[in-house]
Structures
1.
Amino acid sequence: MSLKPLIEVQQLSKNVSSHEGVLPILNDINFSIYEKETVAILGASGSGKTSLLSIMAGLDPEYLGSAKLFKQELKDLSEDQRASLRKKHVGFVFQSFLLIPELNALENICLPLEISGKLSPLLIDKAKSLLDKIGLSHRAKHYPSTLSGGEQQRIALARAFISEPQVLFLDEPTGSLDLGNGKMIIDLLFELNRDLGTTIVMVTHDIELSQQCARVLTLKGGKLV
Ligand SMILES: Nc1ncnc2c1ncn2[C@@H]1O[C@H](COP(=O)(O)OP(=O)(O)OP(=O)(O)O)[C@@H](O)[C@H]1O
Ligand SMILES: [Mg+2]
């Protein structure tokens, strides 16, 4: 049985205009990512990793060429259509964690379920057990401003896991974590991939982590090398 491509990127470029004129930040990129794959994206700071991730996840439709997610050309979809595609199938953990300051740790994790109207006592229990898995049960009622950077990152990861998305995009998922917590998160990620077949696309600076992935894409100055 051949695996289906979940993401197809062809002749993808992105330019931004700055005071110095038009700045190319992604340049003629081509690749596909298949169902159940684990892919690491490596590259120096400023090489275009976050820009590429945002396009693939349907967060940024301002690109040239083609970027398809689940066979749909993302720039051809309306804002609402992209939001609905993300809500159904996509999890995203941002480089900045984007927790909601007015919600406590447990409420932040439950947010995707709340938005999609799926919140139930059973799923709240699931959120609590996730909180336990990431070692933060004792912080359930804490607000983001009272959590450390690593704790916030773990909450953001749990929030992305809770709705069991088909594909999970992560921007430096272990960036704020110490070795022990980093390993715990990585184990959780690969467990999701193994048990649920979640496709994982992650930006990382961690060479060792990238080697655990089935494939590594390396960006240099907006180009795939
Ligand atoms: N909206 C924008 N306007 C102007 N320049 C931008 C914009 N977005 C990104 N850039 C530039 O494009 C380049 C790529 O940015 P990007 O955030 O994708 O890099 P990155 O590889 O994720 O870097 P890092 O490892 O530091 O997070 C950078 O030089 C950045 O300054
Ligand atoms: Mg980045």
2.
Amino acid sequence: MRLLPWKQKLAIDLGTATCHISVQGAGLVVREPTVIAFETDKRRPIAYGSQAKQMLDREVSDVEVVRPLAGGVVADFDSTVIFLRHLIHQALGHRPLFAPTVVVGEPTRATQVERRALMNALKAAGAGEVITVPRALASAIGAGIPMDQPQCRLMVNMGAGSTDIGVISMGMIAAGESLHFGGDDLDDTIRRYVQRRYRITIGSARAEDIKIMAGALSADLVSEQVRLSDLQEGESNGSGQKLEGIAELMRASLKPVASEVLWILDSLPERQLDEITQVESILSGGCAQLRGITELFSDELALHFTAAPDPISCTILGLEAIMNDLEALSLDGRRFTR
Ligand SMILES: Nc1ncnc2c1ncn2[C@@H]1O[C@H](COP(=O)(O)OP(=O)(O)OP(=O)(O)O)[C@@H](O)[C@H]1O
Ligand SMILES: [Mg+2]
């Protein structure tokens, strides 16, 4: 692959919840929520990232707040383009003179439609050449899994909208899948459960708080109790009743993810399966921080899971390593190291 020396290079992890951008030579320069706010009438963008996120769930009049991605893929094309254009300018500090080369993460088994939407959005936002990398591979590199060894390793990245599963060997994905399931779905399940069981309406931001502050996958890991009175703004519920059942609810919600991993493992030749059982499997993405999730997956799959040290940054760190060593792409990734 020949690259023109004056072209800038960017690595972009366009996550459902958070967008990360690294610039070659400068490292990670952007970490912003993937949210954009428009003035409703003219559909003029008025806020991006964390500023726009503050308006979510607030129902500010004349303002429409959009999350351009859902389930790990582009859901609102036009908003994605406007959002990316703004963040690329922010990352470079100026409007690029030459369209920059972009290395971007894509779903591990991206469909043609998903890939085209991502590439077209980036090009419309000012990117030149776009190189897509499966997110399971990027996060494995970011988590420090060696890319030059034939022994298979299992990598699971669970973000806000998607879960990428990959069996990695020699810097390639031997088997894998991408599910449209992530932390957002857990929030939604909590929101509906609180409505159904307690008849209390909460927004998705509050549901995410419950998941992060009080959520754990077994009752003995719960460190902070939420009371119903905490959930009812303006109303004092004197009973002090505690919110219960969240651990069981989340365990049940995560079952399909474990089943999908099992399905992938079952499809492997016995030798590869043996290799996986002998080493640690890595969990990354924001959901790797859920208390008890590595224990849950270890039990359900009879494997030994550990969480990556900086789980939210694994994907961008891997993409950054690829951006810094693009020539190695011809080797199918196996030279990439952090
Ligand atoms: N401490 C925590 N405990 C539990 N969940 C957390 C914690 N911190 C973040 N999360 C969850 O992690 C998710 C965000 O993870 P991440 O930043 O990896 O997603 P993303 O890359 O934007 O999404 P995707 O890769 O699915 O497109 C959210 O659902 C968030 O609620
Ligand atoms: Mg992600």
